[in-house]
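Example record

One chain of 242 residues, shown exactly as stored in the release files.
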Amino acid sequence: MFEYQSSEISELAKALIAVQKSLQPAVKDATNPFVHNRYATLNSVMESCRDALLSNDIWMTQFPVPADPGYLGLVTKLTHAKSGQWQASLAVVPLPKADPQGMGSAMTYARRYSLSAMLGIVTDADDDGTGACATRPTTQTKTAPRQGARASMPSRHAQEKSSHGVPSPTSNGTKAATPTTTIPTSTLPKMDGITYQTVAADDGRTCVIAMGNTAAKKDMLAEIGFRWNPQRKVWWMYANAS
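Predicted structure tokens for this chain:
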């Protein structure tokens, strides 16, 4: 019979509370070619929790186990390194086809959903304000302006409002400055546990979001112009401004 946890999990629970306090939403970084909806890949899910787990001494492992023919069994296990306490889940998913490629596809699917469920990871959602970045990856670093676009651009005051009309605060309560030039991600300062992704904002402009353990680097992010969006729980900045 599958066991789901050790006899005691109090120390593990304390560590997981700390993990959940610093978890980042998983970015929807890919598009399903069949239904054309965006989703968070396994890489995005891992990116959202890896640093939080490691900094709180949580070892996460996922491995396949025997299951009925045509199915894949996958165990996801969280172990607290200091106490040895652990918690696990077992997912059984059907194989799309009975070959190595089908097994790999089912395993990737099961891994991201099992880990998200165990840690409470959510994916970011499109924001209806112009001050939030939509998860539409782009290789462009600057969007060519359309005729008359300057007059339709939101004012700087409007840009600093969230979708609920509240300024997006930085760590010291002040508004971050809006950049006036294109900012390639390669020129942004390197920070341990932080990566940058260029995406398209809902208003068509290019912006940059910071990914990883941003909670530990929020002061540094604010200093270089990133803004905190409390609805989507993400640090972002425009890559260019008119």
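Notes: The beta strands are 30-31, 38-39, 58-65, 71-80, 86-94, 133-137, 194-201, 206-212, 227-229, 234-238.
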